Amino acid sequence: MREHIIRQFLDEPQYSHPDKARVTIIPAPLEYTVSYMQGTRHGPQAILNASSQLELYDEELECSPLEEVGIYTRPALDYRGLDHASALKLTGQAVREVLERGQFPLLIGGEHSLSLEPVAVAREFFPDLTVIHIDAHGDLRAEYEGSPLSHACIARRVLELGIPVLEIGIRSISAEEMDFLRSGADAAIVWARDFARGQAHIPWERLSEHTYVTFDLDALDPAEMPAVGTPEPGGLSWYQALELLREIYQRTTVVAQDVVELCPIPGQIRADFLAARLIYKMIGYRFSAQLPE
Ligand SMILES: [Mn+2]
Fold it and tell me: pLDDT digit string (tens) for 52-72?
């Protein structure tokens, strides 16, 4: 671990005023039900540390999103002494506070189960909400390893709230989940293999105006993003992911989002850096008045 701990995303405090910033980053070092590689609780700090090395100017958008938007990073959520359900409540409460202030909440995780309460809270503010679940995994299990709150169940729990889900990048799913899908679940899947063939068709008509984006970093090809708990082969390339995200922000109003499951590998900073850059690209796309062609 580096000695210098970065507390503000991008480490430019003059653009990180808690009231003036339009984006509030919520570090959520949640880790309760990780099944394979451990360490996702270290993800948020690794992202913040890597972010201090990013170029502020975005060569594609031809601006500095930080200077135009302002990005404030809250202190990390403190889950010590909390059980899993209480930790999820705390996470949702943080999102509520940000939405009440009229700001854009962006959670950085942390394991994927953290999305549940933020999605529920966002739906209170935007009743037509749909969820865009970008992930290698379906996460549609009824329960996993004894827990209905597991990271492997997050999309199932969201559907149970009556919120439609569009899953993108999927390449690992169980027979039980496929049966559930075929039983009439309000979910659609865009498979990773279709991106590889250049045949990915996103059913945009399924999305409402207001959306919540949950981005599990294992959606990306582990050749580019190795630092995830479950590195499934294949997945989206960096540029495929950017193209997808651009279109999401163009076509829908993303009202809240999370980027989860970074599981830092000591000494391997490229993954941390990629996660930080991806988050900055998302903010740029979200708040660019007009995306260049
Ligand atoms: Mn996943």
Answer: 999 999 999 999 999 999 999
Average pLDDT of the chain? 95
The domain total for the chain is 1
* Distance from residue 111's CA to the centre of ligand 1 (Å): 9
Residue percentage of the chain with pLDDT more than 70 = 97
**Domain of 55, in residue numbers:** 9-287
Residue 98 Cα to ligand 1 midpoint, Å, equals 26
How many other β-carbons are positioned within 10 Å of the β-carbon of residue 166?
A: 22
* CATH number of residue 252's parent domain: 3.40.800.10
Residues belonging to the binding site for Mn(2+) are 112, 135, 137, 139, 216, 218
Domain-located, residue 83: yes
Each residue's pLDDT tens digit, 202-245: 999 999 999 999 999 999 999 999 999 999 999 999 999 999 99
For residue 140, is it within any domain?
yes
Tell whether pTM > 0.85: yes
Given the DSSP bridges, would you call strands 253-260 and 210-216 parallel, antiparallel or unpaired? parallel
Distance 187 CA to ligand 1 centre (A): 16
Domain-embedded: residue 2: no
pLDDT of residue 4: 74
All residues at 6 or more sequence positions from 28 whose CB lies less than 8 Å from its CB, including other chains: 44, 76, 77, 91, 94, 107, 108, 109, 110, 114, 258
Cβ pair 111, 31 in contact under 8 A: yes
Of 36-40, 111-115, 138-142, give the lowest mean pLDDT range. Answer: 36-40
Rounded to the nearest angstrom, the distance between the alpha carbon of 218 and the centre of ligand 1 is 5
Is the residue at 95 inside a domain? yes
